[in-house]
Design brief:
By secondary structure, this protein is an alpha+beta fold. It folds into 2 domains: 191 residues, Hypothetical protein af1432 (Orthogonal Bundle), CATH 1.10.3210.10; 147 residues, Beta Polymerase, domain 2 (2-Layer Sandwich), CATH 3.30.460.10. 54% of the residues lie in helices and 10% in strands. Strands 1, 2, 3, 4, 5 and 6 form a 6-stranded mixed β-sheet that branches. It is globular, with a radius of gyration of 23 Å. The chain starts with 32 loop residues before the first helix and ends in a 16-residue tail after the last helix.
Length: 383
């Protein structure tokens, strides 16, 4: 099954199959039934959604939250925060709910909501590594829940997407914090799609000239590189098809900030960066990961010291994959030699790589029937 060639897996096949409608009356089908069937919770959602001047922005926010497969109290806490950004605005009826009533959806959500209020009241700190690390520790301490941390990151990404509405001073502070606090936080949680988006958007603001220059340089070579991608994709597909390995494959350009970091290591000589494109192979199980690697090595020469086995030795955030670099040679061009970066992983590993800690919840929900879910599956904590 290689029909996903060239398609971003993180945005397509492996995200929850939840749609979105254009009106409140359609109940925005991405909202969990626990919210929609609770009159008070549903009223908060409808009030918030009806106040949005740009429905597409609101939908974009909820699509991101959907990727995290949040439990109802956490999503309701996010809704409460979006609607009532000061605790004094919270309706009196919610203040009367006993906080120790753990069976009450609102009792659980309000406790989480109060944590979110606290972190959004953090004072601005000096822009230096020590203060960035201190802020990270404060976020872990105050939010103290991986789902809540993930919600916090989605809200920060949404803020970055709306930078133009901020004052110049606020934009600078927001971009710096996104680069030095929020992106590292996403990395520690293993939610790499948020990390990459935060880094690219912050890079564009903080290093605008560098960003534009890099964008132009990449654009000049994009046509030739696109041809190379197509050829390499076809070759990997042929290799794995002949081996009988069911797979999905994607060839993608590396993110701007990732390329910029590579430039710093080669004295900003763009011509020395040859691996602007990476290939990802997704297979069904661990045995097929190593089998695919062996077949790829039979057809390309591996680059010395460029193999990493994160399956046997996962990263601290749980990331697993095989990373290798091989050399692409051509019979019709003796002088042609280009490195090819390839990652090989299972579907479960891919979910973990894209969604980090959220992948645990998504994976468990897909495997369990609704009446089999337990509270334990949501009691995750940052390692």
């Amino acid at each position: 099954m290689n029909n996903l060639s060239g398609i971003d897996l993180s945005q397509n096949n492996l995200s929850p199959a939840i749609g979105i409608d254009k009106s409140v009356d359609d109940k925005m089908t991405l909202v969990p039934e626990a919210i929609l069937t609770n009159p008070e919770a549903n009223k908060i959602f409808e009030d918030w959604y009806s106040q949005q001047s740009d429905p597409e922005t609101a939908e974009s926010l909820f699509k991101k939250l959907t990727l995290l497969s949040l439990k109802p109290p956490t999503l309701l806490a996010a809704l409460l925060f979006l609607q009532y950004q000061k605790e004094v605005d919270l309706p009196e009826q919610f203040e009367k709910i006993a906080p120790d009533d753990t069976g009450n959806l609102f009792a659980q959500a309000i406790l989480l909501y109060q944590r979110m209020l606290k972190v959004h009241q953090f004072p601005e700190r000096p822009k230096n590594p020590e203060q960035a690390e201190l802020t990270l520790r404060m976020l872990f301490t105050v939010l103290a829940d991986v789902q809540l941390l993930a919600v916090f990151l989605v809200l920060q990404l949404q803020k970055m997407e709306q930078m133009e509405s901020l004052s110049p001073e606020k934009r600078d502070a927001t971009a710096w914090t996104a680069m030095h606090v929020h992106a590292p936080l996403a990395g520690r949680l293993g939610i790499f799609w948020i990390k990459a988006e935060l880094e690219d958007r912050a890079f564009r603001h903080l290093e605008y000239e560098s960003y534009q220059n890099l964008k132009k340089k990449i654009a000049r070579k994009r046509s030739a590189r696109s041809d190379n991608v197509a050829k390499i994709l076809a070759k990997i597909q042929l290799i794995l098809n002949n081996a009988g390995i069911t797979h999905e494959i994607q060839g993608r350009y590396k993110r701007f900030y990732s390329i910029f970091q590579k430039l710093e290591k080669v004295d900003y000589d763009f011509e020395r960066i040859q691996d602007l494109i990476a290939f990802r192979v997704v297979v069904n199980n661990v045995d097929e990961c190593y089998a695919a690697l062996s077949f790829i090595y039979e057809n390309w020469t591996p680059v010395k010291n460029r193999f990493k086995d994160y399956i046997v030795k996962p990263k601290s955030n749980g990331y697993q994959s095989l990373h290798t670099t091989v050399t692409d040679l051509r019979d019709d061009d003796p002088g042609y030699s280009r490195p090819i970066e390839i990652q090989i992983r299972t579907r479960k590993m891919h979910r973990m790589a894209e969604y980090g800690v959220a992948a645990h919840w998504l994976y468990k929900e897909k495997r369990q029937q609704p009446n089999e879910k337990t509270d334990e599956q949501f009691e995750e904590s940052p390692a």
